[in-house]
Predict the 3D structure of the following.
Amino acid sequence: MMDYAPLIEKRRLRLAELETQIADPALFDDRNRAGEIMREHRRTQELLRDWAELCEVERQLEENRELAAGEDEELADMARADLESLEPRAARLQEQIQYSLLPRDATEDRDALVEIRAGTGGDEASLFAGDLLAMYQRYADTRGWKFEILDASPSDVGGFKEVTARVSGEEVFRYLKYESGVHRVQRVPATETQGRIHTSTATVAVLPEAEEVDIEIRPEDLRIETCRSGGAGGQHVNRTESAVQIFHLPTGIMVRCEQERSQIKNRETGMRILRARLFEMKQREAQQNYSDRRRALIGSGGREEKIRTYNFPQNRITDHRIGYTAYNLDIVLATGGLDEIIAQMQHAEMQERMEEME
């Protein structure tokens, strides 16, 4: 195992610095800066707790290995039983510590916008987009995150042509960033009379939420139009121009929001989505510096990249980037059980980053 002690000692010194800064009331005059310091303080405390636990587990491992090799058969059997639980615990702690010591992506602590669009497959694709939305909502629930729909364009069959949601909470983008790309479903649609399996797609884009300091948007670069909302809504739809369309002239990006009854709220939501999309473009330019090997493993995060297949007849879910396959598709969709897939993605990314650092 790599000797982490020198790095851990640096983190102990950093923790003392952070606690000094937190004790200064002036820190909280800048809310963004205070938030960054508090998050780093929490992460550093968690790292040191993991290190202390790992040291204790390794001490127990050493003792039990000695007992397992001893002549007392009863003690040796007990020691071997303990080793079966201690060894995977030590491996898990080592991986957590490795991940915590890696240089951190500045966006990992951020909230995220999740954009889902129906792809090829017509009505079936829109239904699948709705299934993905529900899956992410359930996953957010399991992590204690807040999930809110910002804008949606429902389809006639009960799915979505496109939908945008905001997910807020602890380290949202760290976990959801792997979901960007093309998701493919293989199943027999409800409207299929001959039992044939159809293939449809939906596109997911996960964007870290951007702040005004990240992206400067000049008023002269915008054209903002108002129009009447579409869809259900009765007299409100017919009489009120609450929908907002925002055009960013330099990039050609257009955002339309009509979810709220208030034009002001739709404009605020539209600007939030626009800022996130511009920030994503900025990040993509920076990602060109990533190694070709890492991009091949983790993927570009691009909307055009097929990342996952959901095969209903086989109850199979396959992530093509890392060759992961499991036969629990029904559980993943019903409960939002993405933890294992995301853990595998994090592990693969960590291994590549460790190799790059070496």
